[in-house]
Amino acid sequence: MIATITQQDAATELVANYLDTIANQGFSGDTDASYATRITASTDNSVYQQIPQGVIFPKSEKDIQLALQTASRDPFLSLTFGPRGGGTGTNGQSLTPGIVVDLSRYMREILEINVEEGWVRVQTGVIKDQLNDFLKPYGFFFSPDLSTSNRATIGGMISTDASGQGSLVYGKTSDHVLGLTTYLVDGTPMCTSPIDIDKAQIIANQDSLIGSLYKTVLDISVNERAAILAKFPRLNRFLTGYDLEHVLSDDLLTFDMSRLITGSEGSLGIVTEAKLNLTPIAEFKTLINIKYDSFDSALRHSPFLVDARATSVETVDSKVLNLAREDIIWNLVSDLITDVPNKDMQGLNMVEFNAVSNDDIKDKVDTLCKLLDECVKNQTNGVIGYQLTSDKSDILKIYAMRKKSVGLLGNVKGSQKPLAFAEDTAVPPENLADYIVEFRALLDSHNLQYGMFGHVDAGVLHVRPALDMCDPEQEKLLRTISDQVVKLTAKYGGLMWGEHGKGYRSEYSPEFFGEHLYTQLRKIKTAFDPNNRINPGKICTPIDSEDSLVSVDGQKRSHFDKQISIEVKTSFNNAMTCNGNGICFNYDENSPMCPSYKVTGDRRNSPKGRASLMREWLRLQESKNVDLLEVEKQLNKGEVITWWERFVHSREKRKGIYDFSHEVKASMDECLACKACTTACPIKVDVPTFRSRFLNYYHSYYARPLKDYLVGNIENSAPLMAKFAKVINPIVKTSLVSNVIKKTVGYVDTPQLSIPALSKRVTKTQKFDFDLLNKLNAEQQSEYVLIVQDPFTSFYEAELVESFIT
Predict the structure, then answer these.
(1) To 5 degrees, how large is the angle CA 639–CA 641–CA 644?
(2) Which domains are seen in the chain, by residue range?
(3) Model confidence over 562-594: pLDDT tens digits?
(4) What pTM value is reported for the model?
(5) CA–CA distance, 534 with 525 (Å, rounded to integer)
(6) Could you tell me which of 59, 187, 67, 176 has the C-alpha nearest to residue 123?
(7) Residue 250 class from Cβ within 10 Å (0-12 exposed, 13-18 middle, 19+ buried)?
(8) Measured between alpha carbons, how far is 153 from 125 in angstroms, rounded to an integer?
(9) Residues 6+ apart with CB under 8 A from 498
(10) Is the dihedral of CA 440, 47, 173, 289 positive or negative?
(11) Rounded distance, CA 168 to CA 93, Å?
């Protein structure tokens, strides 16, 4: 019944040898080639899936240097590497067929802050919200914003040159990078920061690897300056992926290699540290929520709002608003975005003003409100109403709803799910409304549903068409639509990627850069990584390389999902629908989801990780022609296999015979079954439910441990033991017995039985007349309290029950 994979599948001999070698040489972090960890690292927030050969979790720069230096010697020269942060990318930037270098587990230290000079130095595994929580008492924040800020790492932001809300004022990540430490493919460290052009020329003349890199980049950025300025569009979201324009300052007096590395998607080296500038927190904020009769009206009105000197202008369409209404998040914002009587709200613009003094903000807000009053009165510009708030907690609630939009879109019913693949296009803001009209017509011509939200002040809109990637014809549409959107953005003077990077869309790079400039990118890749070993296939390939770029046609999650029958996928929908958004990786310790992940830091123990493992387990079952649903029916009727077969299988387990099911069970065992994922996850991934079904299968095949029977029979044993509490409690306290209980039952701190007299009092039964209760009206029923305690409470915490009653 249980499908297996061989140890050879779990890790190649070369990779196993490599991981053993670095461990023996002093690698202090974790190395892992287990299939479960590889599956967990095989997806991000995109439609793609690429199973790596292994994962390493460095604890220091020394670990990264050791890993790369070792890989630069025989017999490991064929190994490739892909750096990974929060895994929140929508285009597969961190997916690799080689070895994942995961910086998010350990390299999360904030190393230094200089308040006087306004900068902070961090390891690149630091999470965006973690950094801002640290900076808040100093009166600063790291200003580039993004919807995944509670789990996205600084390294990932540097990798894609991320930005989001407020970028018109605050810019992109690259605008805030003061210096980087990057480890090159051979383990050489390179520290970069803005330097005088003359000093850069001196470095370029040195006979060293770093000297050759400076020479290559300096020559290209200077000699191709005119072509670069002519080709790169004048957008707030400039052309990412080896930013040749901003390597040189506008006056050509300063050279900064960090600008090239920022946005390079980890294809030039592994960034380990970053020095970042800080932005003073604007204490005074006002948010105006403007309601429109159509989404088109909201878009066309946005340039006017930008001209009103707003800090940011965010927008959502009716699709997103209606999904938010059905989610728990709406309880927080319903009084801040009320319906307009007799009007249908089809679009919403969220206009934020902020300033360091109240005087700087008041005039702007008052002026805009007067103009909005005129719009409502005269029924112009599609404005049907507006609300404003200056309460910071309320503003955060609105943005929490906006940030949750990504997850909410993924929770639509049916097999067609809104997907990220052409969703962050950028055009000049003044062209946005006309561009979106054509974009919508394009999607409508394919009879697709979609949702829209984004940063209209920067001309960036997130558009996610709903497709069923398990349908071959709809899978082809992903390519068709991608090609059409490339042409459409070019028509309106824009880019295919505004803030989420290239990743599997790298194949379109030549079309936007042009053949000549694209060749210059390849020269840079050749200088940094001549054998294409660092995140191969992203941005570009080295000159004369026979390797291909990754493609929008690359292997998708649906490649694996299609191997599972429709009936099984439907039955296990609470695992299959996970879209990789990763909100369960939330940095905030006060977030209810997910306790087991927060404690272990192992993503196999997160809702996303467990859903990924479950999906793969289902696929492996079907690859062995196991009819899961039929087996489940048999299980509900009784035994499926004999006790002897279960004994034999359990003996095989003890001998170490590999079965992926053991890895899945190890993850499921860490789940507390708290059910937080069923409400906090926007997709409503339900781990406890599919976990219980998996364990039911698993223990029909492998014998349960003794502790399961001991704990499972607590209802029968506790009343009996409680009678002898005075004898049992002192024995349980002894170190010998407590250690035995810890090993056999799993109790770390064995509870003490309540005294017999007290247990007897609180377990005294009294028949309650429910018919009488049902005859009472609601007001009378509200005066009754029914207390139903479980056996554990009754016999181990009886004093709690009595205290509650009295």
Answers:
(1) 115
(2) 285-403 (3.30.70.2190), 711-805 (no CATH)
(3) 999 999 999 999 999 898 989 999 998 888 899
(4) 0.88
(5) 10
(6) 59
(7) exposed
(8) 5
(9) 235, 237, 424, 425, 426, 458, 459, 460
(10) positive
(11) 25
CA distance 635 to 696: 8
d(CA 463, CA 419): 9
Task: Please state, in angstroms and rounded to a whole number, the distance separating the CA atoms of residues 472 and 457.
Answer: 37
Q: Which of 22, 44, 281 is nearest to 159 (CA)?
A: 44
Q: Does the N-terminal peptide bond of residue 682 adopt cis geometry, omega within 30 degrees of 0?
A: no
- Furthest-apart CA atoms within the chain: distance in Å: 94
**Sign of the C-alpha dihedral computed for residues 256, 258, 262 and 266 taken in this order:** positive
Rounded to the nearest 5°, which phi and psi values hold at 568?
-70, -40
pLDDT at 238: 64
Q: How far apart are alpha carbons 455 and 145 in whole angstroms?
A: 11
Pairing of strands 99-102, 54-57: parallel
The strand pairing partners of 285, in sequence order, are 354
Q: What is the pLDDT of residues 304-328, one digit of tens each?
A: 888 888 888 888 888 888 888 888 7
358-381 confidence digits (pLDDT tens) = 888 888 999 999 999 999 999 999
Q: Which of 664, 686, 663 has the alpha carbon at shortest distance from 674?
A: 686
Rounded Cα distance, 522 and 160, in Å: 18
Q: State the DSSP code for 292.
A: E
Amino acid at residue number 37: T
Reading phi first (left if > 0) and then psi (alpha if -120 to 50, else beta), residue 513 is in alpha
Tokens 């509900």 appear where? 636
Between strands 270-277 and 177-183, the pairing is antiparallel
- SS3 for 57-121, per residue? ECCCHHHHHHHHHHHCCCCCCCCCEEEECCCCCCCCCCCCCCEEEECCCCCCCEEEEECCCCEEE
User: Residue 102: left if φ>0, alpha if ψ -120 to 50, beta else—which one?
Assistant: beta
The Cα–Cα gap between 394 and 389 comes to 7
The dihedral built from the CA positions of residue 644, 650, 651 and 653, taken in this order, carries a sign that is: positive
Dump strand ranges (E) for 110-236.
110-114, 119-123, 140-141, 177-183, 189-192, 195-196
Q: DSSP letters along 304-348, please?
A: HHHHTT-SEEEEEEHHHHHHHHTSTTHHHHTTTSPPPTT----EE
Query: Using CA atoms, how far apart are residues 697 and 24, in angstroms rounded to an integer?
Result: 39
| Crossing angle of helices 643-654 and 687-701, rounded to 10° | 100
CA 296 – CA 375 distance, rounded (Å): 16
